Amino acid sequence: MALARIELPHDARRGELVEVRIVIQHPMETGFRRAPQGERVPRNAIHSLVCRYRGAEVFRATLSTGIAANPFLRFFLRATQSGDLDFWWLDDDEVQGAAQTHLVVSP
Amino acid sequence: MRRRDFIGSLAALAVSPHVSTTDPLIWSFTRGMPVLPGRVTLEVPALAENGHSVAMTVRVDSPMTPSEHVRAVHLIAEKNPVRDMAVFYLGAQCPRAEVSSRIRLNGSQRIVAIAELSDGSFWSDAAYIEVREAACTDGG
Amino acid sequence: MKKYLVLAALIACTAQAQNHSGLEFASEEIRRLQASDAENPGMLWVDQGAKLFAQKCASCHVSMKGVATRYPAVEDGRIVTLEAKVRHKEAFAYESDELLALTAYIANQSRGMPIKVSPPAEKLDAGRKAYYQRRGQMNLACAHCHEQNWGKRLGAETLSQGQPNGYPAYRLEWQKMGSIERRIRACMFGLHAELPAYGSDAMLELELFLAARASGLPIETPAVRR
User: Fold this and answer.
1) pTM here?
2) Interchain contact, C226 vs B49, CB within 8 Å
3) Which among A3, A44, C90, C184 has the fewest CB atoms less than 10 Å away?
4) In a domain, C77, yes or no
5) How far apart are CA A91 and CA B140, in angstroms?
């Protein structure tokens, strides 16, 4: 299970803009690199990522090898109520990853 | 190609200095619609120390309301072996059309950001990034 | 004797005053990355290390604060690195994510604290000799770049002093976290010299010398480097 680090503001108020930042541990292997013995390291990058806030999709991305290793994403959502933020992603090897955190929203 | 599409793409060429709308990659999501320069701001350093990781922020000037918002932002590299870098899907619920990430560049090149709006129009920005090579070979 | 001591102290002071972290030679982008725990990819390994520490080490060890400032250390006449210490219970492979995570976590617990490595003087002889020894096809010693020419340009890069205070570090060139031993090997590769094996005497001697040389520099783990 890939590690991820999600950063959210500590105090969000209802209706406010919330900046979401996530870093995911993943090599985003391009398929062009060569291992020390000379053989090609096969391509394996996260290609699909979805973020849901209280069950509703707030961000989706199709990624490719042009995104740097250990991918970083920063986007915005609007705070409504306290609830879970769920990230899900899938890579070329068909390995799924997930990360979750809780957004606290004061009225 | 039908005559209508052909004329469309000629017109598109005239107003799309950032991209060639007959480029199959661009065509795959614009279907020949003109890509107008503007409303999109691509923020990248002019000089990147290392091509493995370059900070990128893309912003689109949009009110982000149900009737007027950004559907998606496409990020394309000119010279990477795989040119499509990312597509960020935003939608009406997204309060601000701004996404940051870190990109990987195979040498100095231009990258283009194309935003698809809810009214079906396409807007773009482009930037050239000079990528430095390492002084010493690493070898792992 | 007193004059010698005063002179040695003066040199030591100025030498320490002249210690510069690799961060000072890094680009704005790298400095920005290192300063942000939210964006620094190295923190992924620190997080993993915290989890592993709780699972495997917390039953015996409580706080790791300050520990990393004292390594490499000399114990029973042998040079011992932080990696070697971590491997005492479970022999994680060198450069494995687990070993990197644990050493990154432990070093991160000492972030901001100055390196305090001062072994018996004779223990530094071998490492010092290695540091000033020409090697490889390039026929250069570490000192040629990192002592005589730091601050100057080599290609498009600015030479650093080759300080170890940020390691394990996230190196853009590796696209992942790596240890100081990996970095030393990478440097040797650049010289087209023979690469010392992980955990070998040659490696340990050099590491001890580098740490003693770096005394006073704050630990920055997880540093971001090019």
Assistant:
1) 0.89
2) yes
3) C90
4) yes
5) 25
ipTM: 0.95
Query: Of A5, A28, A68, which is closest to C47 when you measure between CB atoms?
Result: A5
* Burial class of residue A98 in the structure, from the number of CB atoms within 10 Å of its CB (0-12 exposed, 13-18 middle, 19+ buried): exposed
Q: Which residues of A touch C45 (CB under 8 A)?
A: 25
Which of A30, A40, A60, A64 is best to mutate for the B interface (most B CBs within 10 A)?
A: A64
Residue of B nearest to C181 (CA): B140
Domain count, chain C: 1
Going along chain B from its start, the domains and CATH numbers come out as 34-131 (2.60.40.2470)
Q: Could A5 and C44 be called an inter-chain contact, meaning their C-beta atoms sit closer than 8 Å? A: yes
Q: Are A65 and A28 in contact (CB under 8 A)?
A: yes
Token pair, residue C164, equals 């170890």
DSSP for B15-50, written as a single string: H-SS--TTSHHHHHHHTT--EEE-SEEEE--SEES-
Residue A13 near chain C (CB below 8 Å): no
Residues of C in contact with A71 (CB under 8 A): none
Residue spans per domain, chain A: 4-33+41-106
Residue C5 lies in a domain: no
Q: Are C68 and C219 in contact (CB under 8 A)?
A: yes
Query: CA nearest B140 in A: which residue?
Result: A36
Contact B30, B122 (CB under 8 A): yes
Q: Tell me the pLDDT tens digit for each residue of C207-217.
A: 999 999 999 99
Percent of chain A with pLDDT over 90: 86
Residue C13 annotated to the active site:
no
More confident position, C153 or A24: A24
For C7-64, write each residue's pLDDT tens digit. Answer: 555 554 544 458 999 999 998 889 999 999 999 999 999 999 999 999 999 999 999 9
What fold characterizes domain A4-33+41-106?
Answer: Immunoglobulin-like (2.60.40)
Domain assignment of residue C13, yes or no: no
pLDDT, position C85: 94
- Separation between Cα atoms, residue B87 and residue B89, nearest integer Å: 6
CA distance to partner chain A, nearest, from residue B21 (Å): 21
> Which residue intervals of C71-178 are DSSP H helices?
82-86, 97-108, 125-131, 142-146
Structure tokens at C99: 């070993």
Whichever domain contains C186, its CATH number is: 1.10.760.10
Q: Which of A86, A68, A73 is nearest to A29 (CA)?
A: A68
Cis peptide before C218 (omega within 30 of 0): no
